[in-house]
Specification:
The chain has 400 residues and is an all-alpha fold. 78% of the residues lie in helices and 0% in strands. Helix 1 packs antiparallel against helix 6, helix 4 packs across helix 6 and helix 17 runs antiparallel to helix 18. The protein is globular.
Amino acid sequence: MTTAEQTPARTQGPEIPGRSRWTAVSVVALGTFLLVTAEQLPIGLLTSVGSALSVSEGTAGLMVTVPSIVAALSAPLVPMLVGPMDRRLLLLGLMTLMTVSNLVTALAPNFAVLVGSRVLVGVAIGGFWAVAGGLAVRLVTPADVPRATAVIFGGVGAANVFGVPLGTLAGDLAGWRVAFSSLSVLALVTLVALLAVLPGLTASQAIGPKLLLAQFRNPGVRVGIIATALIVFGHFAAYTFVSPVLQRLSGIDESYVGPLLFGFGAAGMIGNFAAGAALSRRVYRSVLMTSVALAVAMPLFLLLGRTVVGGAVLLAVWGLSYGGVSVGLQTWMIKSAPQAVEAASSLWVAVFNLSIGLGALAGGVIVETLTLRSVLWLGGACALLAALTIRTARTDEALR
């Protein structure tokens, strides 16, 4: 499923001994934990930041929007700009940027400086994720790639379950500047760990516009990109408003929304590792089942989510299903473009992050102009379209 422009990688398969390579995988997972925590932490601190820097909560929301958009742009641009640079040095540089940018956020004297620091956070997120997403094929044997990818993306679920809630709690108790200072310290710890365990990772190939565009001629990559855009767009259009959905539709008291969202994240972690195990056997079937489950779970809220128990159960099912999205689609991209993993991953990360922002934006417009229930229909419809798109790759042997 590769094209003529996808030149063979010079470095394939594991490059370091077994014990060290799994340690490296674990540290990269710590990096993804940090990235997602840094990206989403402002959601819980908008009010306190807005009050301290004299801006509205709507304006403070740029703390979330800006890094998402910048990350989408940085995912393909960073690998292109650094050329053949050793990926170990690149990851170390990006983690240094994350350390400094969060420190600047914590010390920001005004909102303009704070937004500038969040631009740097977006660069670090996009660049790091674009490289880290495809590292499993460089660190472990082919048979272990799905499991290693699940570990790396386990950091995403851990950020939702532990990182963001704990960071928000720290901000509530000690102030938002302390919360961002803590992120800077965690980034520094991750930087030291990466320096200690990550091997040299010679760039497998130079990434340029020609190679990136060539990926769209790969049918498997095209399907993966379209499915990612549909699933992530639909999920965030609905999930952004999950709190009012639980309160108004399921009749759940606001005080229980936080614990239920914690449960959503915990279910997502289970889904992530369950998908990792299933992907080692059947990539196509696993990703298809994830899409179908999401297509059912979100609209089903309108029928079975009208009670406290029904809403809580369906939220857990939703979390379990969405937990398999990142690891499933990243594995899909790896299988579809084995000779151009980094290029395909860069495009995938760009689409993923862009879809987050666009999905949340579309959900807000729909809630304002139509009804809250409409975003659940939209989320389910997008997942269904993704499932139909995935079905077009059912005869592809590389994904069986």
